[in-house]
Design brief:
Order of helices and strands: HHEEHEHHEEEH
Distance between the termini: 196 Å
Shape: globular
Mean pLDDT: 77
Largest sheet: 6 strands, antiparallel
Structural class: alpha+beta
């Protein structure tokens, strides 16, 4: 019995010591991974999701600002002479408007005095011919100690009292007007009997004014403008040309006379 105890006791001690020793690292089993987890980690890298297609947007060109298409405007509506009322004023004889009474005969210069000729005038934005009796007079502003504004106001008042109406809607030096009428400014001004126009610093002074006086019998065109420090008044009374040249009688032709 003693011999059996002596054999068993060492075995129990060894078994107890073995149970008390800590386990070595790596001896604990790893937790079971879900099926396929290792394959996903060690296999080929998964392709990144395709980026959504980007559609390139081209903005439409910005519209040009107003007026960028060019300065040449299309001609306006043709001027209607019937839009000007026939005057009811008692009219003086041709040339209808006098020179200032303060001027002496030698201070008034007559540029043109012709029974029949053609002068071009402005009606609305159009240039049109006027044929008839023509008189053009001028005088210096400094003779009366007038400013351009004083000249403008004086003639505006006098012409309005006759029943005349201002009818120019464009300046004769305007590039659009020149382009519409052939492009040769010198030729245009010659047709209008305008030697030159002064540059006006005052916006209330046009420098050129076209007036129309409609009478019961005819049309009277009066151009008022300032050139080289002078006031110009050009009057055209429309009328038919008086035919003075006659043919020879048939009897004279037969006799050779």
């Amino acid at each position: 019995m003693m011999r059996l105890s002596n054999c068993v006791l060492p075995l129990l001690v060894v078994a107890g010591l073995s149970a008390c020793q800590p386990r070595q690292p790596g001896t604990q089993q790893a937790a079971a991974a879900p099926p396929g987890a290792m394959q996903a980690a060690t296999g080929p890298a998964a392709a990144a999701p395709a980026a959504p297609a980007v559609h390139e947007i081209h903005a439409a060109p910005a519209a040009p600002p107003p007026g960028a298409a060019g300065n040449a405007a299309a001609p306006g509506k043709a001027f209607d002479l019937q839009s000007i009322p026939v005057t009811s004023a008692a009219l003086p004889p041709f040339p209808y408007v006098a020179m200032p009474s303060e001027l002496g005969p030698k201070q008034i210069y007559t540029e043109k005095d012709i029974e029949f000729d053609r002068v071009y005038v402005i009606a609305g934005e159009d240039m049109r011919p006027a044929e008839g009796k023509v008189l053009q007079r001028k005088f210096f502003l400094h003779t009366l100690k007038w400013s351009p504004l004083a000249a403008h106001r004086n003639y505006e008042t006098a012409l309005s009292a006759l029943g005349a109406r201002r009818v120019d809607a464009i300046h004769p030096f305007d590039e659009r007007f020149v382009d519409r009428n052939g492009g040769d400014s010198a030729a245009i001004w010659k047709k209008m009997q305008i030697p030159h126009l002064d540059r006006m610093e005052d916006p209330d002074v046009p420098g050129f004014e076209q007036w129309l006086l409609r009478t019961p019998d005819t049309h009277v065109w009066i151009s008022f403008f300032l050139a080289n420090g002078q006031v110009h008044v050009l009057t055209v009374e429309e009328k038919a040309m008086r035919q003075l040249v006659q043919t020879l009688p048939a009897t004279a032709l037969s006799t050779g006379r």
